[in-house]
Amino acid sequence: MAVEIPPSSASAHPPAQHPLPLPPIFQNPSSSTPQLITQGAEALLFRSTYLLPSLPCALKYRPRKPYRHPTLDLRLTKHRILSEARVLLKCRREGVPVPGVYALDEAAGWLMIEWIEGEVVRIRLNEWLRGRKEAGREEGFEPADTELVGLMGRVGTAVGRMHAVGIVHGDLTTSNLMLRPSSHEGINGDANGDNGLLDGEIVLIDFGLASQSTQEEDRAVDLYVLERAFGSTHPRAEGLFTEVLNAYGKSFKGANVVLKKLEEVRMRGRKRSMLG
Predict the structure, then answer these.
(1) pLDDT digit string, tens, across residues 78-107
(2) For a 10 Å CB count at each end of the chain, is N or C smaller?
(3) What is the pTM of this model?
(4) Please, are residues 48 and 16 in contact by the beta-carbon 8 Å criterion?
(5) Catalytic residues
């Protein structure tokens, strides 16, 4: 599970003094000072710039693993960097809302992609729910809660568009869904122009576990992972997850078959829970 690192201050150390291992690209004297955003089990995510100081980018770096054989480690790193880049490029070509790929070096273990402005859905949704609780409206949600219902629908549509082009994410959670400000032209149907807390275009991020598949089973497991993650992270809004599935069912031909397969996946999940 990723560990969030607080943003560095303006007096951050230069790259050479950074406490974590840095990719060679950051050791160039012309490189801007990197800001570590997230440290996961397999990779580090930095914010930097690409070509121009005014163009931010995200750089995902997979450092060498000393516990792996060097040859195996290099092979795995190359495969994962190239696989993630191919998935992103395919999604981008087909109009799925994902970050663009700027550059990569699979041998050095890094992938440079578009920096997505905004916040993850997890943060925005929890903030919205907290505000609702403080206003004394904690219990129950209705179709009149258009802001929340709209968000759920956009999530379902974005996931459906990804599945429609033959990609399964592998780690769908509300931490891997970004809400990009509505000033960007939405490509997944977001036409809401106001600036509510839950407004914005859904952008799918972190495709490190993604793969190319058109199997209903794989797509259903993707939805099941999102459903379970949603229930554990946002239990007070779990009842509205049906809005995600409703939008998903309308997003591409064959989506309803996936939803039927989801019922089977749920049953298997319940049996595993009962058996411990």
Answers:
(1) 999 999 999 999 999 999 999 999 999 999
(2) C
(3) 0.84
(4) no
(5) 171
